[in-house]
Specification:
Length: 151
């Protein structure tokens, strides 16, 4: 997935058992979809908490945050409860959505860490990746959304 691509549609179960679809979320505003390797790990916790801590900044830009990993719903629920996340964590256990977005690693390896900023027309505004800089994903997504608001 690259800038300008059409983001693949999906519907996945979130940590509370409800279903979230990309189309429904885009009706509310642009979506920041971030893939993380595994809930409850140090890097994923740092990244997810950074997205949580920037809630006001994302809200000011009208953006919806969605986290996604291959973790089962019960692990996502525990992760969210432990850290007080105010956005959905989606479960992609068969990694079909990860494959559609090009972040699935082969075999049993965890997905790559990547973030996609998706405009309301489903066009990817930015594809952000870094396996080691946990703040880069949210920070860069905010910059892209701010530029979007200026155009």
């Amino acid at each position: 997935m690259r800038e300008g691509d059409l983001a693949p549609e999906f519907s996945l179960e979130r940590e509370d058992g409800s279903i979230v679809s990309l189309t429904d979320e885009l009706a509310k505003g642009p979506v920041v979809l971030f893939f993380y390797p595994r809930a409850m790990t140090a890097g994923c916790t740092a990244e997810s908490c950074h997205f949580r801590d920037l809630a006001k900044e994302f809200a000011d830009l009208g953006a919806i945050r969605l986290g996604i990993s291959a973790d089962p719903v019960d692990r996502q629920k525990a992760f969210s409860a432990k850290h007080g996340f105010d956005y959905p964590l989606l479960s992609d256990p068969d990694r079909k959505v990860a494959a559609a977005y090009g972040v699935k690693r082969p075999g049993p390896l965890f997905n790559r860490r990547a973030t996609f900023v998706i405009d309301t027309d489903r066009r990817v505004l930015a594809a952000i990746s870094s396996e080691v800089n946990m703040a880069k994903h949210a920070d860069e997504a905010l910059r892209v959304l701010a530029r979007r608001g200026l155009s």
